């Protein structure tokens, strides 16, 4: 028997997630997102109309049955911490539920922040000890996907692995940004290369590579021991991908878990969905993809919800109904608090409290929360940062030279607009 997600029903068998804590690594800067991470860490970047990127890892843990979660933060963490305090404060300690926020706080030495992904766990060993758990699942807090971690945990226990690594297949030319692995017929990892310049292909499909998702399952007693050993190694970068995983692979006790086996899909999703929205292009594309008639990622699945901070806002409103001045949105997502006032919105995604004024036109535009679009503005193939005030008559996405002069324009033609960019443009044009 299966659930609607094609997830095996465990019946009376206790779920391993009840004995597990999730350790979420959320300290990354995400510099490839350019100015989108000037004020926030990558996991805190907005996604999908009302969520933040980190909500996907946290929701997967919660929906899988994990009620003990720690989130390690470091780079520009204020908005991330505030979001978790507002949206993830429903855990109850009397039910043995916790969500601990663990900023880099020089707990080991005054000069030492988190030196690497493994070091972020090492510096909090005493806190993990207090959880009293048997298993730890280490998660990256900056990817978009839906996954039942219980299935991965069961494979880990049944295989006798020291570590189980979540993995997915990616085109070989895109794999240089991942840890890449070879496995034998049993799923045992026989080779692991962290971000190789020339990624090897899979033996049965040389155009594809088996890439790490940055998800690792350990028994805590083993992980604790190997982290202590790594901390004592002055030559180590104290990183899971560079140090911890290769060492366990060399011992022959690392196994791969295919994402396709635990990806949560509804009848509307036809293939496993996982995205690293780590560039402006990828961020724009993943958001715009949600406007498709049948998107690859189903956000309307109430049985596997993406939990987030539910801001109290009124419904979206569309006003004016006359030729050339009609508030309309076609094949678009419009969040609560938005007012489409005499504007034409096509294939776009508007986050909470965005406003567009009369005679403006949006085409494949992503507006982050609180963006304002002035009259007669035309926005195409762009990302507008939160709180930005688009001036009357501004045109974005039609003149490559003008876009590149004032804004961040990618090689593929996607334009990122922030308020400091507009302020500089206004100052230079006025002077």
TrEMBL record:
Q: The organism sits in which domain of life?
A: Bacteria
Q: Which Pfam families match?
A: Hexapep_GlmU, NTP_transferase
EC numbers: 2.7.7.27
Q: Does the keyword Lipid biosynthesis apply?
A: no
| Amino acids binding alpha-D-glucose 1-phosphate | 114, 179, 194-195, 212
Alphabetical UniProt keywords? ATP-binding, Carbohydrate metabolism, Glycogen biosynthesis, Glycogen metabolism, Nucleotide-binding, Nucleotidyltransferase, Transferase
Q: Which GO terms describe its molecular function?
A: ATP binding; glucose-1-phosphate adenylyltransferase activity
Q: What is this protein called?
A: Glucose-1-phosphate adenylyltransferase
Q: Which organism is it from?
A: Corynebacterium terpenotabidum Y-11
* Gene it is expressed from: glgC
